[in-house]
């Protein structure tokens, strides 16, 4: 399924885990060098700036080629279907180059693979739109194509885009095909987001999905955000207001329920983050507190925006200072001191990766059917004594 070399990916993960524990002094320099020699990585993975630059170069180059093809075929491209054909053709060529670079050239998160995925998907989607497909059909094909890309190329941003395309298809299907009321749409998105988050939490710890662990983690963030958006008063009021033709200032049906969820859901995230030691829930909950304040500010005037921001800033700095002081000594599994952190889990992850790769290595079969060369008392087929 995955397009990248699995052995190289395993070596990459082993070196990443080894480097993390080396920086914390858990392994020596000699052990680190031995791991590098035992598990060499030949993948080309530049830093984020080079990656962005290469991706932009690929996208710009593809757009220039696309424009050149369109200019050369100006007289022939009388219909939108002809332009769509050009887009499909160039999209297929870009996908061929993507597979070629992935196999022939050891590119992994290099920017070239990112750029080719964006160009291929963009050209294919442009072709679907030019064929005058309805929104539901376009979102379905986009979702289908995104899933294929994600299975082949487990990039972080691609996982989030795939999840977004699923939400877009569900939204378009409910609005254009059924059509569903705004409140039903909110409930469906809520259930889908919750199911996605629970699924990501389940599969992220499974060894067979190790190549997808980071993208799945990003998807879990996106699922929590979409869950909150589905019950946020501002989002439901603005989208549902257009669908239900609400007048400006008119109250949203069951508005009291959405006000409760707008304020309570971030607190639930923070509570789960603390009790379950989940960084995903904790970070998302703290971030959504700001979204809650913004939502309340949209409908109820309390203070000028500048005053609200200053007060909120002082409060957050004060809370941060108190927490830093309180957590100098570990409390309930939380601490701000590096020396109190338990690194046994990181070492076990490194050991499990190395052991798993060793156990999965193919064994050379021993040929016992023929005659072997003797090296002791009797003479074997090779004539040695």
TrEMBL record:
The chain crosses the membrane at residues 48-70, 76-98, 110-130, 160-178, 184-204, 216-236, 256-274, 281-300, 306-327. Keywords: Membrane, Transmembrane, Transmembrane helix. It comes from the Bacteria. Coiled coil: none annotated. This is Membrane protein DUF2157. It comes from Chitinophaga skermanii.
């Amino acid at each position: 399924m995955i397009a990248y070399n699995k052995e190289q990916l395993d070596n990459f993960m082993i070196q990443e885990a080894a480097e993390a524990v080396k920086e914390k002094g858990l392994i020596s320099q000699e052990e680190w060098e031995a791991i590098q020699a035992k598990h060499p990585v030949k993948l080309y993975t530049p830093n984020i700036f080079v990656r962005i630059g290469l991706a932009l170069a690929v996208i710009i180059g593809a757009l220039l080629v696309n424009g050149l093809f369109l200019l050369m075929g100006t007289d022939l491209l009388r219909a939108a279907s002809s332009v769509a054909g050009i887009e499909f053709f160039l999209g297929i060529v870009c996908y061929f180059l993507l597979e070629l670079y992935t196999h022939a050239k050891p590119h992994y998160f290099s920017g070239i693979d990112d750029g080719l995925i964006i160009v291929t998907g963009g050209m294919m989607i442009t072709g679907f739109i030019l064929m005058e497909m309805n929104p539901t059909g376009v979102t379905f094909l986009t979702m289908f194509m995104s899933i294929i890309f994600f299975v082949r190329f487990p990039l972080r941003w691609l996982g989030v885009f795939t999840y977004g395309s699923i939400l877009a298809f569900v939204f378009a299907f409910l609005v254009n095909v059924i059509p569903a009321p705004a409140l039903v749409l909110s409930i469906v998105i809520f259930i889908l987001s919750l199911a996605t988050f629970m699924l990501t939490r389940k599969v992220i710890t499974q060894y067979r999905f190790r190549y997808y662990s980071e993208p799945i983690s990003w998807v879990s963030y996106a699922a929590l955000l979409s869950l909150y958006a589905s019950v946020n008063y501002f989002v439901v009021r603005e989208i549902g207001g257009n669908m239900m033709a609400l007048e400006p200032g008119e109250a949203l049906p069951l508005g009291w329920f959405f006000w409760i969820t707008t304020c309570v859901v971030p607190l639930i995230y923070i509570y789960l983050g603390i009790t379950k030691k989940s960084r995903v829930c904790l970070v998302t909950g703290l971030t959504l507190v700001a979204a809650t304040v913004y939502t309340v500010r949209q409908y109820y005037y309390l203070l000028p925006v500048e005053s609200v921001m200053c007060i909120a800033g002082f409060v957050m700095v004060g809370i941060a200072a108190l927490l830093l002081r309180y957590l100098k000594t570990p409390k309930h599994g939380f601490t701000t001191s590096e020396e109190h952190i338990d690194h046994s889990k990181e070492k076990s992850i490194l050991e499990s990766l190395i052991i798993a790769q060793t156990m999965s290595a193919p064994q050379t079969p021993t040929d016992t059917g023929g005659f072997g060369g003797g090296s002791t008392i009797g003479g074997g087929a090779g004539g040695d004594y």
